[in-house]
Amino acid sequence: MIFFLILFLAAYVSAVSGYLTENPDYSQLKENTWETMEFRQMQLGDWILQSSLNYDRITSLMVAFHYDLRALRGEDEQAADWESVRDDLMRIHPTAYGKLKNAYTMILSDIACFPVPLPAREGTPDISYEDSFGDGRSYGGERIHEGCDLSGSAMPRGFYPVLSMTAGTVEKVGWLEKGGWRIGIRSPSGAYFYYAHLYSYSRDWQPGDTVQPGTLLGFMGDSGYGSQGTVGMFDVHLHLGIYIPTDNYHELSVNPYWILRYSEAFRTKADY
Question: What is the pTM of this model?
Fold first, then answer.
């Protein structure tokens, strides 16, 4: 009986090991992995909603599960010996591992607010959003959607407040043809948070101004896709973009969807 138990345990460990490390040399991690679409999709899944942010664990599990944790559940995490994975990665690919961990840290570590407060007034329609990163866009030429849209089309432009998700410094503000009235905040860890298609600003923002998580930046609108002041070319919504500097890109977009899902834990309520 003990013999068969030992065989079963050995087979189980082997299966788990094979599941986590299909490539024994972790060839799914390269020095430019943080610039690939696999990484940029940021498929953190529901797991990120229930876990403390340990960036070694996030990095190790993302590599082990080929950058998609959407199917990961608690029992899978217990089976995953992420510390051993981390040790192997740091031994085999130390530079690539460091870059990847730094990228996750840069993106997630400063988030302390959801960008639109929950309406406190009964009957006020809430905003909605879905994963549209990578969808096609045609205005100004064929391109992909490099953000996530939070729809507020049930209410008029200027109704929904837009809050800063992080502390940081205003880096860019004003009109962009594709983004309308926008404001860009550089967080302390280095990520750039881009809030676009605003109706108006909460104040006369200037580059160099500082904000805190929850600072009112402006109000959701439908500005853009034309000369300065153009509105009404699409439904009222907030376009949220998140960008990081990498080896080969000054600003590289990542998918905000699961980051927004994570930030709902910090959502405030307001009477508007």
Answer: 0.88
